Amino acid sequence: VIPSFAIERAQDIIYELNKYYTKYIKTEDQDFLSVPVYVDSPLTVSATEIFLRNPDCFDEDTLKLIKIGNNPLDFRNLKFTRSVEESKQINFSKESKVIISASGMCTAGRIKHHLKHNLWRKESSIVFVGYQANGTLGRRIKEGEKVVKIFGEEIRINAKICSLEGFSGHADREGIIRWIKSFKNRPKKIFVVHGEEEATEEISRKIEEELKIKTHIPELRETLSIEGEIVLPGGRLEIDRRSKELREIEENIEKVKSIFLPTFQRLGYRTDGGADSKELNNIKNKLIEIQKIY
């Protein structure tokens, strides 16, 4: 199971898998070719279709592959799934398979269903190919938590957890420094965001020492008002002491989802425009269950 960002990262993975499939076609090891690769994310499927409709935007190496008949975003046993039923069938099948699904940090989308069905299996592997932000389900899995809660159900992690670190879409520290140096008019102050605490502190220090530009690392929930050349500090919400409370709220939300989602899905599949009395009574019972949670 590969949690992946729907745009660009998923296409990068398909591109790399295509190269492996092309390689194995020329060898005696044909077992690899029989393993299906499922791209199970409607947004990923739509984004990939846009890539395929605009080959003129590809780089020269990719265009060369296309000219010799090798579509870099298509290969044997690559399967795109859109519908809910197609997605469900992936987990019902007992064959070996590769599943690429979103969201990349496992916070939403079909990937949560695939994790629910595979995290507990010793023969499964979860392969991370992108950054996992602090507090996300992906981060908790990557950092080695033994049990996680998905849709209100506790799932024990028995699968092998792997990370491929070479797919970052961001510039590294030296690349950012070169970019700032290229400015004709240097900024008077730089806000360092979107990074781990240690990394942001390191690049902040380097910018100040090497480029002599003031920096500021905003804290979570901090607000800043920029007026001309003056930066006015705003307020910051203290949340460290509330982290446990926030986690409990998150878990309760997951419980609500697990209680109501199956019922709403059944109602959503109806075509007669209404729900029968049995379904309505079921909803009432679910409301009673929610009251018990709180």
UniProtKB/TrEMBL annotation:
GO molecular function, a single term: hydrolase activity
Keyword Signal among UniProt keywords: no
The keyword Phosphoprotein is annotated on this UniProt entry: no
Pfam families tied to this protein: Beta-Casp, RMMBL
Keywords on record: Hydrolase
Domain Beta-Casp residue range list: 10-141
PANTHER family for the chain: CLEAVAGE AND POLYADENYLATION SPECIFICITY FACTOR FAMILY MEMBER, INTEGRATOR COMPLEX SUBUNIT 11
Name of the featured protein: Beta-Casp domain-containing protein
Species: marine sediment metagenome
